[in-house]
Specification:
Distance between the termini: 76 Å
Strand content: 5-15%
Structural class: alpha+beta
Helix content: 40-55%
Oligomer: single chain
Strand order of the largest sheet: 1-10-9-2-3-6-5-4
Length: 386
């Protein structure tokens, strides 16, 4: 396999642990048995920070585990049947996957056979920009012959037939839109869009966990509104409850707050998304409280007094989210200056009365004391926290 270009390796690929792993797995040979693969190589070519370090190897999972365990390296069989094990060194994971080819696929999972062919391994990967390999000298290999040019042209393209890649794993539909959002430019690839349209009805056959992971990554992008609209148009998101969200409001927010984006996607309500997304208890709680705060601000208005009360009742983060959405609906990108200052700088007070204070006044503990504390707190709030 001939290399296409040579680029400097980032520090994450030249540190002691990474070099040790590569040497133990034949990465130092003139014809390496192990290469860096996928996103880490893509990011090298892009010149952006690398994340997880993934490796592809000719060695079988048994051989990888034996070599590493013999050298006192912790290794976990995270996806052993599919050829993947994870080495852990200084609390950092390294995913190592045996070269493989698909034998059978059903759109959700694949039966694989191991191979020693880099070309066969690259042919089963999703996008050309992910089918890249690199050695310890920074030599980049591009078996498809398209990955590097697609990166440079900001074109997200499936390896080989888009229809075939989508039919192998319907999660690739969501991944396609995420990758186009982060790495693409101008119009998406027509063949890819057609494959996504044809496979859209099968997205719900995937696990909710896999769907949620991809959707959250999309919603964390600074500006996902155009991609979300295209996903709705192609039927990819048609199973979301009501899917009556306002794309204009989505386009006004340019941050990375996934909870706020989920709230906008859900049409500023706390409708049940569990048939589609697997949200954590913390996410569900955040959306419930945000709905309450949003109803509060739309009922009482965004006056300075009411914003302070909302902050006290629901917390700073929730109040900021609710005021942002209310501002979007009013045609503003951010709340007006006095409100923005309160949301940023006002110190939320602590209710100064406690049960011990009432006991000292002769009241006995019990429901009556709880009701009295609540009554006093409401008067304190209504009196401007005085």
């Amino acid at each position: 396999m001939k290399h296409t270009l040579t680029i400097p390796l980032p520090p994450e690929l030249t540190d002691h642990n990474t070099c040790r792993l590569m040497n133990l797995l034949g990465g130092d040979k003139s014809e390496p048995d192990t290469l860096f693969v996928g996103g880490v190589v893509r990011n090298m070519v892009l010149g952006v920070p690398v994340g997880d370090v993934d490796m592809a190897t000719r060695y079988t999972p048994d051989e990888v585990m034996s070599r590493l365990a013999h050298n006192n390296i912790t290794v976990i069989p995270t996806g052993f049947d599919h050829g993947t094990v994870t080495a852990v060194m200084d609390n950092r994971p390294y995913e190592i996957t045996t070269l493989r080819r698909d034998v059978t696929t059903d759109g959700r999972r694949a039966d694989v056979a191991f191979t020693d062919s880099w070309a066969q391994d690259s042919a089963r990967r999703d996008f050309t920009m992910n089918a890249l390999y690199a050695d310890m000298q920074g030599r980049v290999y591009d078996p498809t012959g398209q990955g590097i040019s697609d990166i440079k042209n900001q074109r997200v393209r499936f390896v080989g037939s888009a229809q075939a890649r989508v039919a192998e794993d319907y999660l690739r539909i969501l991944r396609y839109f995420r990758f186009h959002l982060f790495y693409g430019a101008e119009e998406p690839d027509p063949e890819a869009l057609q494959a996504c349209r044809e496979g859209a009805r099968n997205v719900m056959s995937l696990s909710r966990e896999r769907i949620t992971q991809e959707c959250k990554k999309i919603l964390a992008h600074p500006q996902p509104s155009a991609v979300l609209s295209r996903m709705f148009d192609l039927g990819v998101l048609s199973d979301l409850p009501d899917h009556a969200y306002d794309p204009h409001i989505m386009s006004l927010y340019r941050g990375d707050d996934v909870i706020l984006r989920l709230f906008i996607l859900n049409a500023m309500r706390n409708r049940d998304m569990s048939p589609w997304l697997l949200l954590s208890g913390a996410d569900k709680k955040a959306l419930t409280i945000l709905t309450q705060a949003y109803d509060f601000v739309t009922s009482y208005g965004m006056t300075e007094d009411k914003v302070r009360e909302m902050m006290y009742r629901f917390g700073r983060d929730t109040a900021q989210r609710a005021c942002l959405v209310a501002s979007f609906q009013a045609g503003r990108n951010v709340p007006e200056v006095p409100v923005q200052d309160i949301l940023t700088d006002w110190i939320i007070p602590v209710f100064p009365v406690r049960g011990d204070d009432l006991i000292r006044q002769g009241m006995k503990p019990g429901p009556e004391m709880g009701n009295r504390l609540k009554e006093l707190e409401e008067k304190w709030i209504a009196n401007g926290f005085n």
